[in-house]
Amino acid sequence: MARARADRAARAPRGSGQRTDRRPGGRRKPPAPTVVLLVRHGATATTGTELPGRASGLHLSDAGRGQAEAVATRIAAPASTNGRKRRSIAAVYSSPLERTRETAAPIADATGRQVQVEDGLLELDIGDWTGLDLKAARKRPEWSTIQRYPSGFTFPGGESFVDMQARIVACIERLRSAHPGQMIVAVSHADPIRAAVAHAMGTHLDLFQRVVISPCSLTAIAYGPGGPMVLTVNSGVDTGAALAPS
C-alpha cells in the first residue's frame, strides 16, 4: 500500500504544474457552472401597444437598435465591476424571429461569435391573439386568467404557458449541456425569459407575471451541479422604464 502511494506521488509530483480536479484534502472541486445570459430583444414599433406573438416582419425600432448596441457593449466588457476578468462568451443563440436576431447580431459582433438560431427560444405562440391591441386584450375576460392563473390557460390556436415553460427550460438545458462551464448568450422574449426565471427560482408558474423583463434587459442564471442560481434579473434597465408596458 505504501508503494502504491509512492507510485502515485511519482506520477503527479507536487509543484509539477499538472492540473488536478481535487481540493486540498482530496475533495473534488465542483465543476464550474454554465452561465446563461438571457437577453430580451430590443424595442419595436409595437412594444407596449400590441401583442405581436410570433408574427414575422417585425424589426427593431431606432430605439431598439440603440438598446441592442448598448447591451452588446456591456456583455463584451472584459471585466466585471470588482475588477475580476469575466469569462468570454462561448456562443450567441437567438430565437428565429427578426427582432431577436437583430438584437443578437451586435452581441455576436462584439464577442466575435456567430448568431446561432434556436427554435426553443421562440416567443410564446399566442395563436388567434397575434396582433391584438394590448388595450383590447386587457378588456377580454381571459386576461384575468392570463395574469393570475396562466398555468391553466392555452391561447386559442396557440400554445399553453405550461408548454412554453417546458420548452424554454428544455432549450436552456440543451444549451447548458453543450457548453459546460462556459458563458453563453440566449436572446429571447419576455414571457419565455420570465418563465425560465420562475423555474430557476422554484416559483410556481402562476406567479411568473410578477417578474419584469424589459426590452434588452439582461438576466443571468448559473446552472451548476447543485441546481440553478439566479444572478440578476432585468438588469440594465431604469426602474421607471421597467414599469412601463412592454
3D architecture notes:
By secondary structure, the chain is of the alpha/beta class. The chain contains eight helices and eight strands; from the N terminus they run αββαβαββαααβαββα. The strands form two sheets. It has a six-stranded mixed sheet with strand order 4-3-6-1-7-8, with helices on both faces. A hairpin with a 2-residue loop joins strand 7 and strand 8. The model is unreliable at 1-20 (pLDDT under 50).
Helices and strands, with pairings:
Layout (H helix, E strand, L loop, with lengths): L1 H10 L22 E7 L9 E2 L10 H15 L12 E6 L3 H14 L3 E3 L14 E2 H6 L2 H7 L12 H18 L4 E6 L1 H12 L16 E7 L2 E9 L3 H4 L4
Parallel strand pairs: 1-6, 3-4, 3-6
Antiparallel strand pairs: 1-7, 2-5, 7-8
Helix pairs in contact: 2-3, 6-7
Quick tags:
globular; Rossmann fold; alpha/beta; 35% helix; disordered N terminus; 246 residues; two-stranded antiparallel ribbon
Span between termini: 68 Å
Proportion of beta-strand residues: 15-25%
Reading side by side through the largest sheet, how are the strands ordered?
A: 4-3-6-1-7-8
Stated plainly, the CATH topology is called Rossmann fold
Structural class: alpha/beta
Mean pLDDT across all amino acids? 89
Q: What sort of overall outline do the alpha carbons produce when their principal axes are compared?
A: globular
CATH hierarchy class name: Alpha Beta
Number of helices: 8
In total, how many domains does the architecture comprise? 1
Ranges where pLDDT stays below 50 over 5 or more residues in a row are 1-20
What percent of residues adopt helix (DSSP H or I)? Answer: 25-40%
The helix/strand order is HEEHEHEEHHHEHEEH
Could you say what the CATH architecture is?
3-Layer(aba) Sandwich
Radius of gyration: 21 Å
The CATH homologous superfamily is called: Phosphoglycerate mutase-like
Largest sheet: 6 strands, mixed
